[in-house]
Amino acid sequence: MRILVLGFTGYLGQHVTARLRALPDARVLTAGRSPGAGLGADLACDPPERLAERLASAAPDAVVNCAGVTGGDAVALAEVNARGPAVLCAALREAAPAARLVHLGSAAEYGPGRPGTKATESAATCPAGPYGATKLAGTVAVTASGLDAVVLRVGNPVGPGAPATGLPGRITALLRAAGPDPDAVLRLGDLSAHRDFVDVRDVAGAVALAVTAGGPLPPVLNIGGGTAVRVRDLVRELTGRAGFRGRIEEDRSGSARSARVSWQCSDVTAAAHALGWRPSRTLDESLAALWAATEPGPRAPGDGAGP
After folding, report:
1. Which of 8, 11, 131, 197 is catalytic?
2. Is 171 helix (H, G, I), strand (E, B) or coil?
3. Domains in the chain, ordered, with CATH?
4. Digits of tens for pLDDT over the chain (307 positions)?
5. Which of 5, 71, 218, 222 has its CA 20 to 30 A from that of 142?
6. Which spans are transmembrane here (predicted)?
7. Is 229 strand, coil or helix?
8. What is the model's pTM?
9. In the 8-state DSSP scheme, what is residue 28?
């Protein structure tokens, strides 16, 4: 089975690629815009015709799109998160119409949740900012493409290798820098919001199941932890694991995002039915792996990705 992974150098992409390479009889090809990407492809600016030529040369049985950006201005977000999936679908219809497409979406597409509830795939989508809006546009492009495609709507990924652009990775980096200094101060924003955290290795496992599942899949499947966790509790767990002896100063005046989206929680029942997938790692296990992966000393590339 020939599987092409776009965006393989990113946080999710690295774990997904490692998991797919562990599949029996799988040949994993990679594509992206960075040097050494394998198949050169830039979803933000390549015309569909050029991308179709490269897809035809790869002849994939399945394509996994991990390409995406979480920050930047609205134009940058739209180029990768909205235009990218649309161009990919157009190229696939021309070059590999029988290939299965697995696209990574985001729970941010739902927007604010109702406290105490879990969002199913049929819930209304009302993203609260440009990131969620552009990810939703990408999802619409995929689900309307007519391809054998599924969007995995991912919660807040956490685990080994989490980047500093996200809260768990940023807190971990701050704690490593602070060390045991009792006078250290971490100045953080509002930590009152609830988020649905899912281990990045479990996300990779869901992708592998979606790639290899027989027959058509539902157009959208939630991939999350299935539990709403107060962000403050996640920070408390990390500080305890780090043996942090300093002080945390929390700005409780509230960030714009926390005010707009105070609750996120995904119902993952449909993924269990369609893929036989459920999250297998607890948040404690994810945070332990995240902390261990940042220990000083050399680590092999992809270390901690796991099966």
Report:
1. 131
2. helix
3. 2-293 (3.40.50.720)
4. 999 999 999 999 999 999 999 999 999 999 988 777 778 899 999 999 999 999 999 999 999 999 999 999 999 999 999 999 999 999 999 999 999 999 999 999 999 999 999 999 999 999 999 999 999 999 999 999 999 999 999 999 999 999 999 999 999 999 999 998 999 999 999 999 999 999 999 999 999 999 999 989 999 999 999 999 999 999 999 999 999 999 999 987 655 555 579 999 999 999 999 999 999 999 999 999 999 999 876 544 443 333 2
5. 71
6. none
7. strand
8. 0.93
9. E
